[in-house]
Amino acid sequence: xxxxxxxxxxxxxxxxxxxxxxxxxxxxxxxxxxxxxxxxxxxxxxxxxxxxxxxxxxxxxxxxxxxxxxxxxxxxxxxxxxxxxxxxxxxxxxxxxxxxxxxxxxxxxxxxxxxxxxxxxxxxxxxxxxxxxxxxxxxxxxxxxxxxxxxxxxxxxxxxxxxxxxxxxxxxxxxxxxxxxxxxxxxxxxxxxxxxxxxxxxxxxxxxxxxxxxxxxxxxxxxxxxxxxxxxxxxxxxxxxxxxxxxxxxxxxxxxxxxxxxxxxxxxxxxxxxxxxxxxxxxxxxxxxxxxxxxxxxxxxxxxxxxx
Length: 308
What we know:
The protein is an all-alpha fold. Helix content is about 85%, strand content about 0%.
């Protein structure tokens, strides 16, 4: 098939639109191949002959298969016809290729032909039964009538060979057009995003933000200079300086106390490491023993006080 063309392109180029429609309608097939009317007629004739040959072959196979199983499935068939039907079925299936054997079976063939009306009626009954079963299998909930099967088969063939491929091509074209529109929309989104980024980084908003930041920086610098000038011109009072020195002294004392506690904690950790797990367990056991003894002595003291 021809690649899809954007509708806006066709609108902007009327001559190209005419050429495109002419190619799609007269020069090319729906699958994109060149349209050759003479060759297509030949192909249609070959297709019809092939369909006729296949239908004849399938009909022959169905009749032979029905004849092969007819004696076992038709209780109304006379018994004297069973043997001739089996022989004729084998003959039609090619199981008796020797011509001399065929001459010997000419009597059975004659008997078969003489009773062809009876056999045909039984075969018709069997085919009707099989057709009813096929209708039930095809649609168990809504069983169609056997007379509607040819129409349904034609509809299925037409749908499979013409409608579905055409719908697939149409859906593919629509999908391609949708993808083209999506890509165009994606392009517009990217262009808009780039434009917004440019305005944010280099536009009026960016310049305003930069100018405001510079103004705030200048104000902060001015306030810092004013604070330094005020500090140099107004020294702190003596009480404030003395309080700061005292605070610094107390901070130094607290810092030394913390360092001493840190050294004691590190020494305790080293002792624990030297004692090892066994020593720590022994200390825990002694601690538990001493706590138990302490509780026992306290109970004895309490009991003595109560007794006194």
